[in-house]
Amino acid sequence: MKKINILSVSLTMMVFSSLNVSAQIKLSDIFKKVTGKQGSTTAATGTPSTFEIGQGIKEALQIGVSAGADRLSVKDGFLGNLAVKILMPPEAQKVEKTLRSIGLNKLCDNVIVSLNRAAEDAATEAKPIFISAIKQMTLTDATNILLGSKDAATAYFKRVTTAQLMQKFSPIVTTSLNKVNATKYYSDLTTQYNRLPLVRPVNTNLTEYVTQKAIDGLFVEVAKEELKIRGNLSSRSTTLLQKVFGYADRKKN
C-alpha cells in the first residue's frame, strides 16, 4: 500500500513539474515575441545615423527611378501617358491645325506617334544613368535630399544627369525618328507650311525637341515616385526606409 502511495505522489509531482516547465516555455516564447516586436519598432523609429540616411535615400531612389524609367521605356509609355505624351512642337501646332482641317489627320497622327516612339526608345537608356548618379551621391547630398523639399531628389537628378541624358538620348532619338520617317514627315509638313504667304517660318530641330521632351517626361515620373516614397507609408517597404523617412517626418513636423 505504501508503495502505491509513494508511486502516486511521484506521478503527481512529475505532472506538476511538466506543467510548470511547459508554462515557463510558453511565457518565454511570449516574452521573446513581445521584446522582438519592441526591438523592431525601435529599429524603425530611432534616429538614423548619417550612413543609414545615405543608404536609405539610395535604396529609395533606386526603387523610384527604376520604376519610373521602366514605365516610360515600354510601348505607349509616353504615347499612352497624358502627363508626358509628346505633341507637335508649339511652333508647329498651326501646321497641324491647318492639315487636320483639310483631312490629313492620319499624317499628323503618324508624326505624333513617331515622336513618342522615339522617346520610348531613348528611355531604355535612362536607368543606368540614374543608378550611376545615385551611387556617386555623397552623404551630404543624401541628407539634403531627405530633409529638403518634396522634390529635392528630382532637383538633384536634374542637376547631375541632364547633360548625360541629352548626350545619350540624342543619337537614339535621331535613329528612331529616321527609322519611322518622322523626320521626313515633319520636314514635308513644315516645308509646305513655310511656303504659305505671310506665315512665320517653322524651323524646329526635331531631335532636340524630342530629346528634351523625353527627359522632361522622365523627371515627371521621378517626381511622382519621390512623392510616393515621401508621403505613402506603404511604399516604405523595409525597416531602413521606415526609419529614415520616419525620421524626416518627425523633423519636418
TrEMBL record:
Assigned keywords, A-Z: Signal
- InterPro entries on file: DUF4197
Q: Does the keyword Signal apply?
A: yes
Indicate the secretion signal residues. 1-23
Q: What is this protein called?
A: DUF4197 domain-containing protein
**Organism field:** Pedobacter terrae
